[in-house]
UniProtKB/TrEMBL annotation:
Residues 278-777 form the TonB-dependent receptor-like beta-barrel domain. Belongs to the TonB-dependent receptor family. It comes from the Bacteria. This is TonB-dependent receptor. The lineage of its organism: Bacteria, Pseudomonadati, Pseudomonadota, Alphaproteobacteria, Sphingomonadales.
């Protein structure tokens, strides 16, 4: 491949960063310092994300970044990769779906779910360039383990210039590298619900200038929501070799293999009346699962075997190389390249509607006047004793198979002269996915934890639900192959006008291309030809003629910012940026050739204008970062998979704009050496503007942007004591999530809630560490999602919603050697 680069103006515009969970002041390293070695102190005062690659001191920065050291990650005790983003102001991360399937929202950007405006990187390279495809968001493709040195998260700012050009949130996961001496670490963890996990790494020198690191984890268990079988299983292994060129640069080669899956946690029955929510009788919203042994494997009406125990996860290999070298005084070359390949599948049991009586279900499945003839357990046990009054529900056994690949390369040249830093670069990404979906596949269940399959025969002899529990045929089907190509040139310039004043500006041109062939439902069939077996009378089949997709668009992004330091400890910044978000594969599926060519409907390119400014103060006593921002969105488009009136599944689109004004505050105060108080908070006023959902039928202008509260905050006090060879620590976090709505129509209220987490650890002789962490200590019953497959209100009483996970404890023992 021939790669071209245009080198014009440049410089790494700087980043404002706040450490939100680290209790000590940190050393300053030079911008060209590589990632910290395993046996050296964490240099989290230097951040790389949001820059052209050289890094910068956080206090000198000119946009908002949060950094988390490995110790801070351990204290936060995230339940998933996405869960760590709860600590980032301006970000609403919902991890109630389990290890995978997170919903992450940023600064009032309107999105229907997943993580449309969040890009994850490893060592500065996007893991998978599309931030979200249907049933795949970036956090699904990486796990946080002890091989991670730190996490950096930039929101807004210069994110639209670098890497994949993400105008929302870019999260950079920085791996640990080896040091000058041989070091190792091992940890074993067990939860109060029986899940087990082992973590380990070892690192050290290969020669005077070359080091290595290898490590990972393996975990197994059934999870907090026990389905009656091991649903959480897998691990990750990461290795790298790092070489230093006598202080002029470095070369790093890394590889990572992930094979991990977990239960996809979905909505369940709850009782809601206005702002009051309670648990559905007999169903613990904190610990129960609808999935059970009888639904572990489901065979749909078309004969497709769906293994629900595979859940949602990934089996991928990721390898890359980063190269940074000063070829002449002031002139540096940087190269970052990575490849990813594997599968990222989803299997889940998706409730269709809230529980109802078997008598009402008979009408739903058989039509007006239908009655219950017999209701039996599908797998033995005879008739259901409560008969027509039994509470039942339907759920779809969804199966989504994705085979994905990506190749990303980012080449840059930096030139420093006097007070000016110039950087120009070229970014190229090629990525593919082959999708095979089978949604729908409804089964009839008891409305109980670990639900049992039901066979329902109507009073007139028609069979509404089969002897295996099947109550509906295949719904929305997809068989598609897509290829995306992104080409981008970027150029940035940073000028130190005075010792106190620095200005920067940059531009990015990007070309986005998508080709593909995709088949969707082309009609329905009666699978067995028998009109009296209602459960398979209407089953979708794929069309024979594929839709051919050819899409291309290009756009400019730019930014200009200024930073003024009153002193080394106190500074202010201001910035304007324009970013773009191009339509991805699922936005183009089902559109006409004319709509794709005209870039209308969901083929539109979103434009995001951001104005932000802030104050930052950093000292041994206090770190404080305040950011004020205003965003304006135009042309944002999403697709939503919904339950159709007849019980099937279909796709509707939403398109329009929004605006948001907000304040982000984060900081830590250390009045004495042994005590710290860390806090962060967000105020957000985000509303839709000309935003239409349900294929244009619902105008939601003025409504609150879904799933993002006006107020959210967290406070973490911590005690760290050093008593001889003992270092005990005690810490706790109180987090508040305000009222918000699950839907753009603002008809599914998610009431506010508090969550309390805490932990205690003891380190002995700087070698052995014993730790206990507790999540949701008060067993709070808080909702993160209503019914995303229903447009508008669910009514009062029994509804479908997804609660946060209940109280849990993790015990761990670790040793360094």
């Amino acid at each position: 491949m021939i790669r071209t680069a245009i080198y014009l103006l440049s410089a790494a515009p700087l980043a404002l960063s706040a450490q939100i969970a680290h209790a000590q002041s940190e050393p300053v390293s030079t911008p060209d310092t590589a990632a910290p070695a395993a046996d050296e102190p964490v240099q989290s005062d230097i951040i790389v994300v949001g820059t052209a690659g050289g890094g910068t001191r956080r206090q000198d920065a000119a946009f908002a970044v949060t950094t988390l050291s490995s110790d801070a990650i351990t204290r936060a005790a995230p339940t998933s990769t996405a869960d760590i983003l709860r600590t980032v102001p301006g970000v609403m991360a919902e991890s109630s779906g389990g290890q995978n399937g997170a919903n992450i929202f940023v600064r009032g950007y309107p999105a229907g779910g997943d993580a449309q405006f969040v890009t994850f990187q490893i060592a500065g390279v996007p893991i998978f360039p599309p931030s979200t495809l249907s049933f795949l968001e970036n956090s699904q493709l990486i796990r946080l383990d002890e091989t991670v040195e730190r996490v950096e998260a930039v929101r807004g700012g210069t994110g639209s210039l670098f890497s994949a050009g993400q105008p929302g949130l870019t999260v950079n996961v920085v791996p640990r590298i080896g040091g000058k001496t041989l070091k190792g670490f091992a940890k074993f963890s067990i939860t109060d619900y029986g899940d087990k996990r082992g973590d380990a790494w070892i690192s050290g020198p290969l020669n005077q200038d070359t080091t290595f690191m290898v490590g990972g984890y393996y975990a197994q268990g059934h999870g907090i929501r026990n389905p009656g079988f091991d649903a959480e299983k897998g691990g990750q292994i990461t290795a790298n070799i790092h070489h230093d060129f006598d202080g002029r640069g470095s070369l790093e080669v890394y590889g990572r293999y992930l094979n991990d899956h977990g239960q996809w946690l979905l909505t369940m029955p709850v009782v809601q009346n206005g702002t009051q929510i309670s648990q559905y009788p007999g169903f613990s919203g904190n610990s129960n699962s609808l999935i059970g042994p009888e639904t572990q494997v489901v065979t749909n009406a078309a004969g497709r075997r769906i293994d629900i125990s595979d859940g949602r996860g990934a089996k991928i290999f990721n390898a890359g190389i980063t190269f940074d070298y000063e070829v002449a005084d002031g002139l540096r070359v940087r190269e970052r390249t990575a490849y990813l390949g594997g599968t990222a599948n989803t299997n889940g049991l998706v409730p269709v509607a809230a529980p109802t009586t078997a008598a009402a279900m008979a009408v739903t499945l058989g039509g007006a006047g239908s009655t219950v003839g017999s209701l039996n357990y599908a797998n033995g046990g005879g008739a259901v004793s409560t008969g027509a009054s039994t509470q039942v529900l339907q759920a779809g056994a969804w199966n989504v198979q994705k085979k994905i690949t990506s190749f990303v390369t980012d080449s840059a040249l930096e030139w420093k002269t006097g007070g000016n830093t110039l950087t120009g670069g070229f970014y190229y990404a090629n990525y593919t996915t082959h999708d095979n979906w089978a949604l729908g596949n409804n089964v009839l269940l008891t409305a109980t934890p670990n639900a049992r399959l039901l066979s329902l025969t109507l009073g007139d002899g028609r069979v509404a639900s089969s002897t295996t529990g099947t109550s509906g045929g295949q719904g929305f089907l997809v068989d598609g192959s897509y290829t995306g190509n992104d080409y981008a040139f970027y150029a940035v310039d940073e000028l130190q006008i005075t010792p106190e004043l620095r200005v920067d500006g940059g531009i990015r041109w990007q070309r986005h291309e998508v080709t593909g062939q995709v088949r969707t439902p082309g009609g329905t069939v009666n699978v067995d030809g028998n009109a009296n077996t209602l459960y398979d009378n209407v089953s979708n089949v794929l069309g024979t003629t594929p839709q051919v997709i050819n899409y291309g668009a290009e756009a400019w992004s730019w930014t200009v910012g200024a930073n003024y330091d009153f002193s080394r400890n106190l500074g202010v910044f201001a910035r304007y940026s324009r970013g773009n978000s191009f339509p991805q594969f699922d936005n183009l599926r089902g559109l006409s050739d004319s709509a794709i060519a005209a870039h209308t409907g969901t083929a539109v390119t979103a434009k995001v204008d951001t104005y932000e400014g802030g104050v930052k103060y950093s000292s041994p006593l206090l770190n404080l970062y305040l950011t004020v921002f205003h965003n304006k969105f135009d042309g944002l488009a999403t697709t939503q998979i919904v339950t159709l009136p007849g019980g099937g599944t279909g796709v509707v689109s939403s398109i329009g704009g929004a605006k948001a004004t907000g304040v982000e505050l984060e900081g830590v105060v250390r009045p004495v050496q042994w005590f710290s108080l860390t806090a962060s908070g967000t105020y957000l006023d985000g509303t839709y503007q000309g935003y239409f959902t349900n294929n244009g039928l619902n105008n939601n202008t003025g409504n609150m942007v879904q799933r993002q509260p006006k107020w959210a905050w967290r406070v973490t006090p911590a005690l760290d004591v050093n008593v001889g060879g003992l270092k005990p620590s005690l810490y706790a976090t109180v987090q508040y999530t305000g009222d918000r709505f699950s839907d753009p129509e603002n008809q599914q209220l998610l009431p506010h809630f508090y969550q309390v987490d805490a932990g205690v650890s003891v380190t002995i002789a700087d070698r052995y560490t014993f730790q206990v962490t507790g999540n949701n200590l008060t067993n709070e019953f808080g909702l993160t999602e209503g019914n995303p497959r229903q447009i508008g209100s669910q009514g009062a009483g029994v509804v479908l919603a997804r609660p946060i996970l209940g109280r849990s404890f993790r015990f761990s023992a670790a040793v360094k050697f």
